[in-house]
């Protein structure tokens, strides 16, 4: 296991900070505050992402009948993690969590306990090396690759830098999954920002001050090529099958795209 470096901000810990958690360090808070100073509603996007995870897993375990999940970019455990939502609906659900932060794995092993009927496992690995994830013996022992799997890529693909860089990773993962599997993804975007905000954010990226590589809707849509989008298709997470009576914030407050799709 890699050593825990508390002097460098990590996305999982910064996300935990925005969600009001306690598992973060000064570097994570400084990074979060810097982004929030430029984009005051960034916490709303984090909260919307988390709520989307709950609804999407509920859809997969409920309507779609999925009983296996591969959750890459797990983040630090909070309420309603993937296995908790899935196993409330189907106690025999099996979940593998994947993250590259040692702190996430420590917390995961302590807190993410499975139902007796199901199974929960964890591996430390990097999204940028999908082949290693797919070949990991823990993954192969926990999930049956002859049966449909729900691939969860929540707020993680935007840490893959470069135009077009996320698509081959998603393609390699989905190619390994059987027909009837699903992809759920969320991704930060600058589509809803003002021209000034877009310029400022691009400056942060160019100066190496942001690890989030935003993508526009058309590039996000390319991640789902060959898959069947579930209604309502590509939308901000707050607009994807919202709870009845939910308050829908302005898209400029969220700055995230999401979609769920089935492999035919």
- Spans of at least 5 consecutive residues with low confidence: none
Reported CATH architecture? 3-Layer(aba) Sandwich
CATH fold-level label: Rossmann fold
Distance between the termini: 37 Å
How many domains, as an integer?
A: 1
Describe the sheet with the most strands. Answer: 7 strands, mixed
Q: What is the C-alpha radius of gyration, as a whole number of Å?
A: 17 Å
Sheet-strand content, in percent, reads 5-15%
Count, helices: 11
Spatial order of the strands forming the largest sheet: 3-2-1-4-5-7-6
* Quaternary structure classification: single chain
CATH homologous superfamily descriptor: Vaccinia Virus protein VP39
Instruction: Report mean pLDDT, rounded to a whole number.
Output: 90
Summing up helix and strand content along with how strands pair, one would put the structural category as alpha/beta
The number of distinct β-strands equals 7
CATH class: Alpha Beta
Order of helices and strands: HHHEHEHEHHEHEHHEHE
Give the overall shape, derived from the CA principal axes.
Answer: globular
